[in-house]
Structure formats: structure tokens, C-alpha cells
Amino acid sequence: MEGNIQANYCDPGSPRQNGRIEWFNSELRDELLSHEVFYFMGEIRFMLAEHRQNYKHYRPHSAFRRQTPAKFAETWKFRNQPRLAKLLDLDPENWTTVMRVWSRPARR
Fold first, then answer.
1. How many angstroms separate the CA atoms of 58 and 71, rounded?
2. How far is CA 25 from CA 21, 22, 62, 79, 99, in A?
3. What is the pLDDT of residues 10-43, one digit of tens each?
4. Cβ neighbours of residue 23 closer than 8 Å, sequence gap 6 or more
5. Number of neighbouring beta carbons within 10 Å of residue 26
6. Can you list the pairs that 48-52 forms with residues at least 24 positions away whose Cβ atoms lie under 8 Å?
7. Which residues contact 18 (CB under 8 A, 6 or more apart)?
8. Among the residues of the chain, which ranges form H helices?
9. Ramachandran category for residue 51: left, alpha or beta (phi over 0 → left; psi -120 to 50 → alpha)
10. How far apart are CA 76 and CA 74, in angstroms?
């Protein structure tokens, strides 16, 4: 690799090496996968989409002061508009257009 930097891979199922993803996998397994029997990939995709929607928009998180991630992001963007505009060197009149574009859901 460039600059004498090497990739450091984690062993699968090693929470001490990669605690964040192992925590996520454990939560997803406990909350969704172990409670359902899936017969088709479409069922899994549907249930994961529902779980993701619930997780982001309806379920408060302690890390976000008991707000949902969507509400936290909205509040954060509102509070940091002037700073973001300055960082991005934007005209304040165009700010609402930029915020509308950033607020759009990702296309799939």
C-alpha cells in the first residue's frame, strides 16, 4: 500500500477487534433475525427496510439525547447552518436549496 500503510483486517466474530460492527450484528440478530423465519429474499429485504425505518425515524437513541437519528440530524443541520455555509463557502441565499438537496433520501 502507499505511504507504508497496511490494511489491518479483523477476524470475523471478534468483538475485541471490531466492537462496533459486532454490537450492530448482535442487536440486529436479537431484534429481528432470531424472531422471524424467512422463506424468500424479498421477505428479508422488506423486514430489513422496516427495521431500518423504525431504527432511524421512530426509535430514540441515548447517544442522541433520546432523539431519533433523523431528528438529531435535522436539529444538528439547523444549529450548524452558518458554520456549514462558511465551510462550504456558500451564499446564504442558496442555503435553503442546499439543505433541501441534503435532506433528500438516498436513491437506490
1. 9
2. 6, 5, 19, 32, 32
3. 777 676 777 777 788 888 889 888 888 899 999 9
4. 15
5. 11
6. none
7. 10
8. 19-31, 41-57, 69-79, 81-87, 95-103
9. alpha
10. 5
Nearest 5 degrees, angle CA 106-CA 32-CA 75?
40
Closest C-alpha among 30, 107, 67, 82 to residue 98: 82
pTM: 0.56
* Residue 5 CA from chain centroid, whole number: 28
Contact 48, 32 (CB under 8 A): yes
Residue 53 has a pLDDT of: 92
For 44-79, the pLDDT digits (tens) are 999 999 999 998 899 898 888 899 999 998 888 888
- In this structure, the chain runs to a length of 108
- 20: which 3 cell numbers? 462496533
Q: Residue 17 has what DSSP assignment?
A: T
